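Give me the fold.
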Amino acid sequence: MNTRKFVSHITLGFVMATSTLSIPTLVNAAQTSPLGLHTDSTPTLSAPLTPSGNLLAEAGAAILRQGDSGHQAGIVSDIATTYSYSYGQTITAVRTAAGTLKLVGWQVNGNGSVTRTGDSGDQAGQASQIDIAAGRLIVTAVRAANGHLKLISWSVGSDGNINRRGDSGDQAGTASLVKIMQLHSNIFVTAVRTTEGRLKLISWQLTSDGALHRLDDSGNEAGAVSEIALSGESINNRRHIITSVRDSQGNLKLIAWEVSPRGVITRRGDSGNQAGNARMVQAAKAGEYTVTSVQTATGDLKLISWLISQNPNGSINIARVDDSGDQAGQIQGNALLQRPDGAVSAVRTASGDLKLIRWQITHAGAIARTGDSGHQAERATLINISANHNGGQAPIITAVRTAQNTLKLITWDD
């Protein structure tokens, strides 16, 4: 661990136990792995970075690059990532050069080096708009070749390869902007944009054999959206999903949904008109606050802290507390991860490079920039950020598409 930092470690989403309280950690992640990914069963080990060259030049940076996956993966056009507690590794879900879904397993070693442990091969077909969540099994949510939402469950074998267990079949219709998170031990929730352009949440039960059964949905309780991000909240021992969306006016809106242990979805409240124009919407739970991260109308990165509480009548109040003001500049890509004292942004800068920025969220909800990664990373798109829970000196992982359009994982210590 880097002893010069002032922020310790945790993960995204709700950690209550994805981000805060007693819910299993949810961390979304990565899609599409290339046809060019390694198919042999022999793990490949990347070398950790040595304290020389660029790393030495950035010795004063608050976030230090530790290692990367090198050339262990091929061309991708979509990425999602999650950490699996069940299997003790990071899983990326990608769209390959052939347009198919592939999952790849990765082990982050104590020194920050990255080992590829296996993949799912050709067990899935054409897919886009990929997202991933991990519980007892791993579940991907994708837009299938016919445009419909499909969920697929996966397990990791003793040989490291990833095996398909079951799927949702034809239980859902046309969908885009696909997102998924785990809310209860066997309950997952997807959030999608329907054919009519409206936000819809659907709850799913994952059975012990990997089957997925549709339980409930939010009906017509939400309007038109053009972006969706998910985070979790527990209020009075009841679990909620917070959808942070770009609404029909192009503005940021947060909506609170209660999801019962049986998967019943109930809308409880929203943030109204407390935020303006926003793009690249991301969200995470950070302590007692939900934090959204957006690109503003002027192209700058802005974080906003929100306090979510329950009213006496059972409805949910979402109140804007503070924002990051002009502490960050122009961005072209945006991802967000919960950390113990706040959050870390992973952004594509105006010059196209990957940069991590550390933020402290105070007990009063104030947001302060406390450091960044400087110039330790190169050109990147499709940026994902997730937590590594294997210990060692690399608690943060970014999964990106490189300038060569290949998947690369980079590990960091903040």
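The radius of gyration is 20 Å.
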